[in-house]
Structures are given as structure tokens and as C-alpha cells.
Amino acid sequence: MKKTDLELEFELALKEYKLLIYKVCRIYTNNQNNIQELYQDIIIQLWKSYPKFKGESKFSTWLYRIAINTALMSFSKPKRSLQMSDVEIHNVQMPYEEDIGLKEEQHQQLYAAIQQLNDVEKSVVMLYLEDKSYDEMEEILGISNATLRVKMNRIKEKLRTLTHNR
Question: Which end of the chain is less congested by CB atoms within 10 angstroms, N or C?
């Protein structure tokens, strides 16, 4: 079956951001099965929302919003079994990659500490680690710039404490 232009465009856009999607998954869970499941859930939600993307914000900002919201929602309600017929996504393929190179001990310690943060703190940290400006974080998370700065200082101190206690 031939891929449509929309499917090809979507697949091309996602190739650039697959590591970002993996990082979102890794921030919200450290169980390999849950990471893979969340990764697929995010891809499905992105595909469902893609036709509505108008380019009013950067693609990465739009992707972050959907990925973070999907991660938050996937752990806040009971799972229902999603059938592939629920989503028209026949030809788009974005395989989950088991090893993307995050095996170093420091990364493991950092992710273990991040797992202990609340959901909002996890989102702030992830965006910070992606070198997002406070203005971009405000746009993605809907939290004021000043509040984000205060949160980030508190989160840094919390992570220092958590990683030194290991």
C-alpha cells in the first residue's frame, strides 16, 4: 500500500524528534515495557493530531505538548486496550529503538532521581535538559516564566540531594 503525502511528511518530521520522544518516555517511567508502550501511545497521539497542526508554533513545541500530555494522561487513568482500528495509521512506521545510547551510569542516576519528582517537575526538567528557554517552556507548559525559574531552582536543589544520597 502506497504511503500518502501526509504520512510521508509526518514520518519525516518524526525522524528528527524520535530521541525527544524517547526522552519524554524515559522521564515518566523507567520500566522498559512501559517506555515502549508510552512511546507508541505518543506516536499514535501525534498522528491523530497531526492534521490539525497549523504551524502556529514550532513543530517541537507542538510535539512536546502532545508527548507530555500523553505521558501524564497515560499514568493518570486506567489503560484501555487500544486497537489499531482506533487510529488510521496503517503505513506510518516509527519503530521504538531499544538502545538509543542512554546507558551511562550518570544518566541512570539522573533518571532515577527524576523519577522521584512530581509530574510538573519532570516536565520542567526534561525541557531544561533539552535547552529550552523559559519562554519556550512557558509556551509548552502554560506556566509563567517567573514561576518556572523558581521551580527550576527548587528542582535543581532537589535533584542534587537525590543524586548525592545514592
Answer: N
Sign of CA dihedral 121, 123, 126, 129: negative
Residue of 61, 79, 63 lying closest to 21 (CA atoms): 63
| % of the chain exceeding 70 in pLDDT | 78
Give the C-alpha separation, 50 to 6, whole Å. 9
What is the Cα–Cα distance from 158 to 48, expressed in whole angstroms? 36
Q: What is the mean pLDDT of residues 126-151?
A: 90
pLDDT beyond 70 at 131 = yes
Which grid coordinates are listed for 83?
486497537
| pLDDT value, residue 86 | 42
**Are the beta carbons of 148 and 137 closer than 8 angstroms?**
yes
Q: How far is CA 70 from the centre of its chain?
A: 8
Helix H or strand E segment including 146: helix 145-164
